[in-house]
Amino acid sequence: MKESIRIGAAFAGLVIGAGFASGQEILQFFTSFGYWGIVGSLVATALFAFVGANLTRLGSRMHSVSHKSAIYKICGRPLGVFVDVVITFFLFGVAVVMFSGAGALFKEQFGIPAAAGSAFLVIAAVLTVLLNVQKVISLISAVTPFLIVLVLILAGYSILTADLSMSEIVRLAGEQDRAAPNWLLSGALYVSFNIACSASMLVVMGGTEKNPKVAAMGGAIGGTILGLLILLLNLAMLAKVDVAGGASMPTLALAGEISPVLSYIMAIVLLGMIYNTAVGMLYSFTARVSEPGTGRFKATVITVGIAGFCLSFIGFVSLVGTLYPITGYLGFTLMLAVFVQWFRSFGRRSRPGAILTKG
Hints:
Layout: H1 2-15, H2 18-22, H3 24-29, H4 36-62, H5 67-75, H6 77-110, H7 114-131, H8 134-141, H9 144-160, H10 166-174, H11 183-207, H12 212-239, H13 241-244, H14 250-258, H15 260-289, H16 295-311, H17 316-350, H18 354-358
C-alpha cells in the first residue's frame, strides 16, 4: 500500500501544475458550467483513476524506462507516432502557458508589467535547464503539499462564507469563458490534455514497481486525489464566483478575500509551481528534439525560450482556453487507445480456459 500511495502522490503532483494551481483551468473547464460542473468533476475523477491505473499497470508490466515503448504498445506504431507528436507539441505549449502565467501573476499581484514577469521566468527557466540545477528544482517541487493545504483553506473559507443565491451563482458562472460546449465534454477534455502531458511519466513511474497491481492501485489513488482537489477548488470558486470570475488567477483572488498575507503566500507558491512546470516542460521538449549536453541542445533551449516568450503575449487566459482544449481533443486518441487496450485485456482474462492457459 505504501508504494501505491507513493505512485499516487507522484501522479497527483505531476498534474497539479500552475494552470491547476491558479484556478484558471478549473474555472473554464468546470465552474463555468455551474452546478453541472460538479458532476463534470466527478466524471474527471473516474477517468483520471481509470486511465492512471491502466498506464501505471502497463508501465509495470513492461518495466518501462521510457514512454515510447508503452505508447507504441497501446496505440500501435502508426498511431503511436501521432500520439508522440501530440505529446511533444503539448510540452512546448505548456511551457508557453507558464511563461504567460508568470506575466499574469506579476501584473495581478505585484503591479509589475506582464512582459517583465514573463521575461523573468523565461530567463530563470533557460538558465536552470542550461546549468542543470537539480537541487533548485527539487526545492521548488516541495511547494506542492503547501498548495494542497491552501486549496483546502480556500475551499473551506469560500463555502462557509458563501452569500450568493443559487440563481446568482448559475448566472455568474454562465458568464465565464468555457473550454467546451458542454460539461461532460469539458470534464473529459480536462483529463485528456492532462494525460497527454503526464502519460510519459506515468508509464515510467509504473515501471519502477514490479507488481502491476500495486502500480495500478497507485494510478487509481492519484486519480482520486486529483478528482477530490478539482471538486474542492470548483466548489470554492462556485461559492465565490463573483470574486473568482474574470480573474486571471482565481485562487489568488480568493486568497486576497481572506487576507493580504495569504494572498502573497499564495503568489509565492504559484510562482514556484509555474517555475517548476516551465523548467520541466522546457527540458522535456528540448530533450526530444536534441541530445542533452550538446552544444545544439543549449542553442535549442535558448531558441525555444525566446519563441515561448514571444508567444506568451497571446495571454494566459486565452492560452488556457485555446491550447488546452485543442490538445485535449488530440489527446482523446490516447485515451481511446487505453480503453481499447483495457477491453482487449479484459476479454482475454474472461475467456473460458484463460486461467488454465495463462501459465
